[in-house]
Write a structure and sequence with these properties.
Layout (H helix, E strand, L loop, with lengths): L2 E3 L6 E3 L19 H4 L7 H20 L3 H4 L7 H18 L4 H11 L4 H7 L2 H15 L12
Antiparallel strand pairs: 1-2
């Protein structure tokens, strides 16, 4: 804060001007209230809230799914069930039309602790194409990756 001096009365007062360079360090929040501000301290607020909403919906679908009894204690998915489960959850989430294919892919992988590369290698060609299109449109990867369509 910048303090100025009144020349008539000779006292100091706050001018209201902030020197933002003084606030160069990271903002710290006490641990007891960190959960209230966790989303606002993330790099991308919208992405963070979308993933949280996805996690909630995934759990609701998971509770009603035929996979709940098998994976309710340990959420790490067997390789044999991984693709089947991905398509089960993907179909349910696509119906809601709230999430993109990329968000569904990331949300499923994070929720069930599946390796991205392993899941990507096992899903179908059309799903890979959807993911690549979304990545290209969002991040402009079509200029960086030279690909040719097979058909």
């Amino acid at each position: 804060m910048a303090l100025k001096t009144d020349k008539i009365v000779n006292n100091s007062y706050n001018s209201g001007d902030l020197n933002y360079e003084e606030f160069s360090g990271p903002m710290k929040v006490h641990d007891s209230v960190f959960s209230l501000y966790e989303d606002q301290l993330s790099d991308n607020l919208i992405e963070y809230r979308t993933l949280k909403m996805m996690e909630t919906e995934l759990y609701e679908i998971f509770e009603e799914s035929p996979y709940f009894e098998k994976y309710k204690k340990l959420r790490r998915v067997d390789k044999n069930d991984m693709v089947t489960m991905f398509y089960y959850f993907k179909d349910k989430l696509v119906e809601s039309k709230k999430f993109s294919h990329m968000e569904i892919f990331i949300g499923f992988s994070e929720f069930f602790q599946v390796n991205y590369d392993q899941l990507y290698n096992d899903i179908g060609v059309l799903d890979k194409e959807y993911l690549l299109k979304e990545l290209s449109s969002k991040y402009g990867l079509d200029k960086k990756i030279k690909t040719k369509r097979l058909f």
